[in-house]
Amino acid sequence: MRGRGGSGTGRPDGSRATPHTHAASGHAQPAFGEAQQAFGEARQAFREAQAGFGQTPEDSGQTSGRERGGASLAAATSVGALSAAFAASALRGLRARPPGGRERWTRVNHAGREVTLLEGPAYVSGALPGALMGGPGPAVALAAAGALGALDDLTGDTQKKGLKGHIGALARGEVTTGAVKILGLAATGLVSAALVDRRRRTEGVPTSVLDTLVAGAVIAGSANLVNLLDLRPGRALKATVLAGAHAGVRRPRSIAGAAATGAALGLIGPDLAGTAMLGDTGANAAGALVGTAFVERSGRLGRLAALAGLVGLTLASERVSFTKVIESTPGLRELDALGRSRPVGSGPGPAAAVEPPVEPPTRPSTGLSSEPKAPTGPSTGPSSGLSSEPKAPADPSTGPSTGSSTRQPT
Predict the structure, then answer these.
(1) Residue 340: what are its φ and ψ, rounded to 5°?
(2) What burial class does residue 25 get, using C-beta atoms within 10 Å of its C-beta: 0-12 exposed, 13-18 middle, 19+ buried?
(3) 388 near 5, Cβ under 8 Å?
(4) Burial class of residue 237 (count of CB atoms within 10 Å of its CB; 0-12, 13-18, 19+)
(5) Fewer Cβ in 10 A, N or C end of the chain?
(6) Does residue 252 have a cis peptide bond before it, meaning omega lies within 30 degrees of 0?
(7) What span, in angstroms and rounded, lies between the C-alpha atoms of 203 and 68?
(8) CB within 8 A of 46, min separation 6: which ones?
(9) Residue 220 predicted with pLDDT over 70
(10) Buried b (16+ CB within 10 A) or exposed e, 212-227
(11) Higher pLDDT, 126 or 379
(12) Which tens digits make up the pLDDT trace of 295-337?
């Protein structure tokens, strides 16, 4: 699994409680009821927003054919807010009754504290109603990428790492979970792009086979990029919020982008607090949904430019540590650290106590990037994520992690 350190890591603040604070009974059914109610409210709010809370671009008669299908600002805002509530409710319900038992979703971070991977399924659950409102393309991208991430989170192997490692193993007839993810994300991107472009054609926007192929690569690449960024607490969710908000607010507005943003905001608190983590399930799903929101709103040139950037970043991740780049860049460094706890002696203001680290066994990673990853704790399973940039050990200065194992300093 490709979380924040081999597959991710927890990152406590030293004074943090364990992630599993809910009773195993008495909360699941109320949380499910809240989720059902939130979904019904979201559908109603979406209809009302489209009907009378604001004009869509095509209603105004002032936009080109490429902008048709944009949602009103009220609709996007409503979907985003309800996606946040739905994701938070889903996490509470999943913690109360974890599928397959608590141990299956529990990982031990660098400081020996337990964190839960259930944030990933909660993200998918929270964003799915909004993705469905956006059409079949976003829904397929979200659900399929999340399922591939869950496969990696729960059953991933660690014998091969990096894009070359997975492709080389496949050429020798060895099927790794990383190779399954590569092929699966490629197929997911292509199917989602085909559904998006079919809808665009019904709205009078001409698209070609080339446009669809490029869009599919953008969706798959976006799923991997968010996973590559999932190296520090909150980093992947912050990137999702920024990209999704742009798609959900700027015309033509995307309901899928609003859903991606809302679900991320609904879960960023537990993520930064060190009680839950995205894992590959959430990171891949968030990236695929944001990528779909982008291709919904872009033409051939925009898609080609995005694909070039994604390819460049993926190749760069084989040689360059994103964490080192971010931490050495003013502005990015402060944004990346926003919301995390500080270690004792780091500066003015309250600081969290630092506990002595617990040395976990070292294991290789299987990501698509070639940088070494950190070991997992004793309760972790193997990992086969799509990136291998080092995921640093959890400490109070970096906050919570979204992967399933510990992080090494980069």
Answers:
(1) -90, 160
(2) exposed
(3) no
(4) buried
(5) C
(6) yes
(7) 7
(8) 75, 78, 79, 133, 255
(9) yes
(10) bbbbbbbbbbbbbbbb
(11) 126
(12) 999 999 999 999 999 999 999 988 888 888 998 999 999 998 8
